[in-house]
Amino acid sequence: MANFSPISAAIGGALIGLSAVLLMLFNGRIAGVTGIMDGIFNPRADGRLWRAAFVAGLIAAPLAAAFLGYPVAMPPMPGSTIVIAVAGLLVGFGTRLSNGCTSGHGICGIARLSPRSITATMVFMAAAIVVVALTHHVFGGF
Amino acid sequence: MPALASLLCGFIFGLGLVISQMVSPTKVLGFLDFFGIPSGAWDPSLAVVMAAGLAVTGIGYALVRPRMPIFAPQNQWPTLTAIDGPLLGGALLFGIGWGLVGLCPGPAITNLATLSPGVFVFVIAMAIGMAGYDLWPARAAVYAGHKLSGATAADG
Predict the structure, then answer these.
(1) CB B43 within 8 A of CB A132
(2) Closest by Cβ to A15, choosing from B12, B112, B113
(3) Which residues in chain A are closer than 8 Å to B11, comparing Cβ atoms?
(4) Which of B75, B104, B129 is the last residue in one of the domains?
(5) Cβ contact A111:B61 at 8 Å
(6) Domain residue limits at B50
(7) Alpha-carbon distance B48 to B29, whole Å?
(8) Which of B102, B116, B148 lies nearest to residue A44, judging by beta carbons?
(9) Residue B83 and residue B61 in one domain
(10) N or C, fewer C-beta in 10 Å, chain B?
(11) Same domain, yes or no, for B131 and B66?
(12) Looking at the predicted structure, is the pLDDT value of residue A57 above 90?
């Protein structure tokens, strides 16, 4: 467990939780990034402004962190653009089909003890674990 | 005010992702790599992020639940309860995409700040996937009874 970073993980996780609680306290909304992002361009949704503001806040965070000297690096991505695009399509379509992602189901939903969100989280975790096992150990990575 | 509050919430969320390093696909994939457990390469950090996030959200939601929101007429708690095909199928597809790159929607958007071309490709593809779902005719039938909540008070 050479890369295990429990203290920064606990602080960061608590901040994510604080954000979810504050968004409910202020705006009465679930802090699900998928639903928030989709609602910016989905004609069925309301509240484009607060949704865009949340996304702007997300993007501002690493900029502020970098300004304060916190290391912020470009994330390593697969070399194949096709793999990136297919993964993005799967994440976008899948999170809409199941109505939530790691934040909406994984944090907000499980915190509400929603059986639906607990089930969804177990399924997407298991699927991701199988994919990583295949790509890293069977096919040797992309 | 709702937009300012939301900007603050997005900023705190993003800081949480940066500090916990969940913006890094390496950290996320290090957790998802259960074959790394025997070799000692496994990184359980994501589990700690979730545990801390759930503790704060669980306690906070319990405190907030009886209150009316400050900048909105009412709380919009999710109303869907069915464990159905779309939930399971969607979670499966999402999990496959997540495992391929190590980015889920929050960290993907947050990483736009790094101007990484790969992240831009990922987020654009993600938006196309979302829009594709929104335009998918079957969706109207599935969530006919939840027209607004399907798009606004969704699980997430």
Answers:
(1) no
(2) B12
(3) 57-58, 60-61, 64
(4) B75
(5) yes
(6) 1-75
(7) 15
(8) B148
(9) no
(10) N
(11) no
(12) yes
Q: Pick from B68, B124, B126 the residue to mutate for testing the A interface (most A CBs within 10 Å).
A: B126
Q: Is B23 exposed, middle or buried (0-12, 13-18, 19+ CB in 10 A)?
A: buried
**pLDDT over threshold 90, residue A25:** yes
Closest-CA residue of chain A to B97:
A87
Number of domains in chain B: 2
**B71 lies within 8 A of chain A by CB:** yes
Judged by CB atoms closer than 8 Å, whether chains meet at B113 and A54 is answered as: no
pLDDT class of B37 with cuts at 50, 70, 90: confident
- Which residue in the set A1, A24, A64 is minimally distant from B69, CB to CB? A24
Residue of A96, A2, A64, A55 whose CA lies nearest to B151 = A96
Lowest-confidence region among A74-78, B64-68, B142-146? B142-146
Query: Is B140 an interface residue toward A (CB < 8 Å)?
Result: no
Domain boundary residue among B75, B109, B134? B75
Q: Find all residues with CB under 8 Å of B9, minimum gap 6, and list them.
A: A19, A20, A22, A23, A26, A27, A31, A54, A57
State yes or no: ipTM above 0.90.
yes
Q: CB B118 to CB A39 under 8 A?
A: no
